Amino acid sequence: MTKPFQLRITVRGYELDTQGHLNQAVYLQYCEHLRWESLRAAGISQDKLIATQIGPAVLENTMRFRHELRGGDEVDVTCQWIWGEGKTFRVEQEIRRTDGVLACELSSVAGLIDLTQRKLISNPAEHFAKLADHPEIMGL
Question: How far apart are alpha carbons 49 and 60 in whole angstroms?
């Protein structure tokens, strides 16, 4: 298993709910941002991926909130790609404060969809590996 891709994000005031906590939808946005950033770090831009007429499709998200985040908190968000057989793969993510406190976990099931046929393609890892300049970032 490869080391998860990671970036640091600072919680911004406009992302807070009326109780002063990070709005629950923003946790998902942080994770989505990390997935795209890990693809970009691997050498797969959105334009490069879409030019193949193949795009990502999230099929399921399971989010577990463990600890509140507040404005100004700095968090490390991770992204770990988990490959198996078939048309789907998993992405495991964590959001941790810099003091190590786990704030949120996200487990996603996703695939790559043929944008013309509107069907999941077989072996998404192979497709990503062909496009990547640094496939090791994605555990390929």
Answer: 21
